[in-house]
Amino acid sequence: MKLYNHTKINDKILEKVLYLSAKAVGAVRTGKVVVKVTTSTYGCSGEVRNSRYGFMYYHGYLNSSRKWNKKTGEYINKKDRKLISTDGGYMFLKITAKHREPLILAERIFDLASHEWQHIKDLQKHGKFGSYNRNWKNRPHERRAITASKRAERVKDKRLDIQDAILNLAIYIEELQK
User: Fold this and answer.
1) Which residues fall within 8 angstroms of residue 6, CB to CB, at 6 or more apart?
2) From the centroid of its chain, how far is CA 35?
3) Which of 9, 7, 5 is nearest to 172 (CA)?
4) Strand locations in the chain, DSSP E?
5) 36-45, 82-91, 119-128, 165-174: which has the minimum mean pLDDT?
6) N or C: which end of the chain has fewer CB within 10 A?
7) How far apart are alpha carbons 122 and 101 in whole angstroms?
C-alpha cells in the first residue's frame, strides 16, 4: 500500500489501522493500492477508483492556470506534481478534522477503510463494478461492502491488535485536538 497522507495524523499509526482493516475484510493484495487520505470539514467519506483514472499527488493548491499535456500525460511547468499509475486501484479517504469523541472517529475511520477495502477487493477480482441503475444500497458491490464492514466490526471486537491500533489512533487524534 502506498499511502499519501494529507492529514496531521502520523503515517505509521494511520497505515497500521488501514492495513488491519484490509486484513479484517480479507483483502490480500494490498501492495499496489494507492491510498490518499485528506481532511474534510463535514464528516468522513471514501471513494474507490480503478486504474483507468489518473491519480494526482501534489503539494499545495491546484490553481486554474495549470495546463495538461496530452502526449506525456503530465502537467506542464509544475515541478512539484507527478502522475502515479498502478494496477491495484485507488482509495480516497476524507477524514473530518475535528470530532467531539476521538474514539468514535477512530472507529469510523476503521469501518470506512474496511468498506473501501472491500471495493478494492471487488475491483481487483472483477475489474469493474456491477449495475448502476439501482438504488445505492441495493447495488451488489455495495451490499458486499456493507456486509464486509459488518464482518470487520465483529473481527474488531475479537482481536486485540486491531483494538490497540484504534486506541492509538484515538489517542493521537485527541492529542492533535488539544
Assistant:
1) 36, 37, 38, 39
2) 5
3) 9
4) 2-5, 34-40, 45-49, 55-57, 67-69, 74-76, 82-84, 90-96
5) 82-91
6) C
7) 32
Please report, as a single letter, which amino acid is at residue 69: N
Return phi, psi of residue 35, to 5°.
-115, 125
DSSP structure class, residue 85: -
User: Domains along the chain?
Assistant: 2-51+86-177 (3.40.390)
Q: CA nearest 110: which of 56, 32, 37, 29?
A: 37
Residue 129, pLDDT score: 63
Q: What is the mean pLDDT of residues 150-166?
A: 91
Residue 38 phi/psi, 5° resolution? Answer: -130, 170
pLDDT in tens, 139-152: 777 888 888 888 88
Q: Which of 51-60, 129-138, 151-160 has the lowest mean pLDDT?
A: 51-60
Query: What number of helices (H) and strands (E) belong to the chain?
Result: 4, 8
Give the residue carrying C-alpha cell 441495493. 138
